[in-house]
Amino acid sequence: MKKLSILAISAFLFAVSCKESKTDSATTSTEQAVAENKGETFTVNADSSTVNWTASHKGGLNPRFGTTKTTGTLSVENGNLTSGSLTSDINSLTTDPKSVDPAATEGKTSADLDTHLKSADFFDTAKYPTVKFEITKVADLAAGTESKTDGANKTVSGNLTIKDKTVNVTFPAKVEVTGNEVKMWSKFTINRQDWGLAYGTDGDAKDWMISKDVDLELNIVANK
């Protein structure tokens, strides 16, 4: 019976891991030179813009999801996005209550998870209150490239700084530029371990239970 249970669990985890991803996988490299600000500057509308995040246990189990508030600027030259900087206030991080069932977490709520994520166990917002993304390059999406972001038309690269580590990430995005507004959407996955973001010490069993993948969804609106 025990052997059967282990096989059943293994089969279940394999099936979960084979589910089709709903996000693009960001590619990473070393920190790059930040793109020069050229043309017109648009200010990110913090009330209309969000960064949505999803994290889970191994195998995609027990997903937790929520949002953070984002500020910053985007620059446009000749109708094209050329540069920009986005800053997420991690103290504004909020876990959606629908993703946490207190009956299954020994009474812990989404607010408890918020507090834990902001503690020294994870983001340590007392020392590192923000996450920053600075665009290094924007290019047209190569013909034939498939993306999970509907209508993706650009490839955006930028330095993503979490705590004291900066890694360059590249992902497909949909960018729309009109006279008074810039919009950028993207859905991509990063590996939190690339930034040394872990629970406890290296090899800690608590950290092993958490998936290394974190899904991010950018919904950015910037106005003149």
UniProtKB/TrEMBL annotation:
<dbReference type="Pfam" id="PF04264">
    <property type="entry name" value="YceI"/>
</dbReference>
<feature type="region of interest" description="Disordered">
    <location>
        <begin position="87"/>
        <end position="107"/>
    </location>
</feature>
<dbReference type="InterPro" id="IPR007372">
    <property type="entry name" value="Lipid/polyisoprenoid-bd_YceI"/>
</dbReference>
<feature type="domain" description="Lipid/polyisoprenoid-binding YceI-like">
    <location>
        <begin position="41"/>
        <end position="223"/>
    </location>
</feature>
<protein>
    <submittedName>
        <fullName>YceI family protein</fullName>
    </submittedName>
</protein>
<dbReference type="InterPro" id="IPR036761">
    <property type="entry name" value="TTHA0802/YceI-like_sf"/>
</dbReference>
<feature type="compositionally biased region" description="Polar residues">
    <location>
        <begin position="87"/>
        <end position="97"/>
    </location>
</feature>
